[in-house]
Design brief:
The chain has helices at residues 40-50, 57-76, 120-128, 150-154, 156-160; strands at 10-17, 28-32, 81-82, 86-93, 111-118, 130-135, 143-149, 172-178, 190-195, 203-207, 218-222, 232-239, 253-256, 261-262. It is α+β, with helices and mostly antiparallel strands. Strands 9, 10, 12, 13 and 14 form a five-stranded antiparallel beta sheet that branches. A three-stranded mixed beta sheet has the order 2-1-6. Helix 1 (40-50) packs across helix 2. It is globular and about 60 Å long. Residues 266-281 have low confidence and may be disordered.
């Protein structure tokens, strides 16, 4: 039987400059520093290493993936699931007239997702984790805050109400940030997204002509229709423009968004998501 790690978990938080406040210059916000995106094989290797029974990594991986696939099937069939991680339940989002429900609802207007609530074990693990804070110095170059769907940018009120539209394949998405207008000379000038889940390491590059809008605070592009739902991506932006929009004589500046984005990450219904409902193990 695999034993739990003896060392305490260490959660590193980055103290980032809160650029949204104009009248205060020394305020910071804390954001977890993301490590490698682990897959089932990575977790299975850890279990095998901690086991006293010399368990096979591939067998553990297969078993773990089988469990996950059954969870997917049950959640898509209307079951809720409770695990050591927490409570999972299917959710739906969409408004229809009663007359429209005499037949199957329009799937384009129906958004399905899965809500997650932390278990007591997960809450306790976070409470027990050692906190390490890295203070990030103010950045004079490009700063990438987040990536959202173009619909959310056009309808901020709906997004604030919890009615966000997920980033989707074949649709436009927008990087929101500061000093991020892309321009300059060189093959590397543009936006690069890289898949971080799995081992493919797939990268997609968007040169300047494929970026719209392209302003100091918003840079957009259209995700290819072939991008897989549920895939996780990092974002890197390379520009030779300075903070004032003038072409720099120095080397291009590169910035990577601190968090990743998920394709097809459907938001929970308003008021849903994490809650305090009991988790029975």
């Amino acid at each position: 039987m695999a034993k739990d790690p003896t060392q305490k978990a260490k959660l590193t938080l980055k103290a980032l400059d809160l650029a949204l406040t104009q009248d205060i210059t020394n305020d910071r916000y804390l954001q977890p520093k993301l490590q490698k995106c682990l897959n089932m094989h990575d977790l299975a290797s850890e279990i095998a290493a901690l086991s006293t029974r010399q368990e096979d990594v591939e067998e553990i991986t297969r078993t773990g993936n089988q469990i996950m696939r059954r969870m997917i099937w049950y959640l898509s069939s209307g079951y809720s699931i409770t695990t050591l991680l927490g409570y999972f339940r299917p959710t739906s989002q969409g408004v229809f007239l009663e007359s429209e429900l005499t037949s199957a609802p329009d799937r384009k207007r129906l958004k399905l997702g899965v809500a997650y609530s932390m278990s007591q074990e997960m809450r306790q693990a976070l409470a027990d984790a050692e906190i390490d804070v890295e203070i990030q110095k103010s950045v004079s170059g490009p700063q990438l805050f987040t990536l959202v769907s173009a619909q959310d940018v056009q309808n901020p009120e709906a997004a604030a109400r919890g009615e966000s539209v997920p980033v989707s394949a074949g649709q436009a998405c927008i990087i929101k940030g500061k000093h991020i207008k892309v321009g300059g000379e060189g093959e590397q000038i543009g936006v690069t997204i890289r898949r971080t889940d799995g081992d493919s390491g797939e990268t997609i590059f968007f040169p300047v002509p494929k970026l719209y809008p392209n302003t100091p605070t918003q840079v957009g592009f259209v995700l290819p229709a072939t991008v897989v739902d549920g895939s996780v991506w990092s974002v890197t932006l390379c520009t030779q423009l300075g903070n004032n929009g003038v072409l720099l004589k120095t080397s291009p500046r590169t910035a990577t968004m601190s968090g990743n984005f998920v394709v097809g990450d459907v938001p929970d219904t308003p008021g849903g998501g994490e809650d305090d409902r009991p988790v029975i193990e």
